Amino acid sequence: MFELKTTFPENFLWGGAAAANQLEGASNVGGKGLSLADVYIFDENTPKKNWSDQWHLMTHKQIEEAQDPASEKYYPKRHGVDFYHHYKEDIALLAEMGFKAFRMSIAWTRIFPNGDELIPNEEGLAFYDRVFDELNKYGIEPIVTLSHYEMPLHLTTKYGGWVSRKVIDFFVRYATTVAERYKHKVKYWMTFNEINCVVHHQYVSLGVIEENHPNIEQAMFQGAHHQFVASALATKACKESNPQAMVGCMVSYQLLVPYSCDPDDVQATVDKQRTSLFFTDVQARGYYPAYTARMFAEKNIVLKTEPEDEQIMKDYPVDYVSFSYYMSGAVSAHPEKIEGAEGNLLTGGVKNPYLPSSDWGWQIDPKGLRTAINQLYDLYQKPVLVAENGLGALDVLQEGDVIEDDYRIDYLKEHIKQIKEAIADGVDVMGYTSWGCIDMVSAGTNQMSKRYGYIYVDQDDMGRGTKRRIKKKSFYWYKNVIATNGEQLD
């Protein structure tokens, strides 16, 4: 009746993750249009600037300048690391590590360059046919995210982003197109990457320009509602194209703990954690949680909905829950009295004195991953996928093409140990796709020097370099982890 599981399942999806807007480059090739990510700049003369501010503070002026062909600014995500032309070489390296799965995204702007076209771009569709065929050649399952911070820019400038209900139809047309095209090549889908981040950075998540909205919280939750409906309809499209398909939701899950046993800290933690769980509640259960009424009333939010929305969300919940996990966070009801966590991008939490930090100030908490996995499984009783986890660090290329990234190995090893503990706890964990399996442009800071990969790419923050691919020490370590199904971590 009760079976203690002490090993990873035989069909465990070992692999890595990447995003088209950070990886592919070739933004002016094959009919691709501009995405939200294509307007982020990087300036090497101001390296200490918090470039992640662009995620939510993008202005009309910046967007207009980015569309000017004469602009001399550097837009890193238009270049990526040129996976578009290196995909065969890169996939061969993933296969050499023994990948069972590769979590990737389709660039919406390769399929519908402006987002509102009626006919898809065949060049874009053909590119992903080639990528999926290459993955299939090596027996690597693609896990495909439909929207990973790469919404067509045109849908922001013309329609105002996801605040407009019209965008639902555009997204569903896109989702239906790719679901039907790749129904024999893709089994695993995700709808929106880190959907809960609409609360933290409205521009990149929703295509919403803050200066247009005096009540930004009204805009963010209205946009989130439209994404919930679109996610359900995309799930329907994937299932109709391939009844064996599995469709998941994906959130950025930063486990939160009370800074102290003060009841006010405990309640503040519950309230703040709900900013993530709200999104999994809707997508995994198919309805808004009970606390929505109070939360909306206190924020003066009134959603505009259609009569069919409730039934659509109820009829098409997701099959699995996936999440990114990089750190935990401590929460205080009085954060102004306590030292803040410098790199805490999501919650603005306080510093946990028991945890070390990365080069970017992210507090490292492997045991928190076990807790997070258990929390999500206890809530929804659906398979869990650790879709992102990794360490951004300043890797040094030494003579002889040597990169000694023991710090990365230590980080990943300790987190994988905790996944194994969660499996022993009884959780159905589908797989582990660590973030940034190949170095690419950072999502938040737009740097290349913030590296996550097992594979080094010879390219600097301004895109200079040979783009040569070089195996790090962690490449060989992870290859052995996969070969032994997680039994040999040292």
TrEMBL record:
It comes from the Bacteria. Coiled coil: none annotated. SUPFAM superfamilies: (Trans)glycosidases. Keywords: Glycosidase, Hydrolase. InterPro entries: GH, GH_1_N_CS, Glyco_hydro_1. Belongs to the glycosyl hydrolase 1 family. This is 6-phospho-beta-glucosidase.
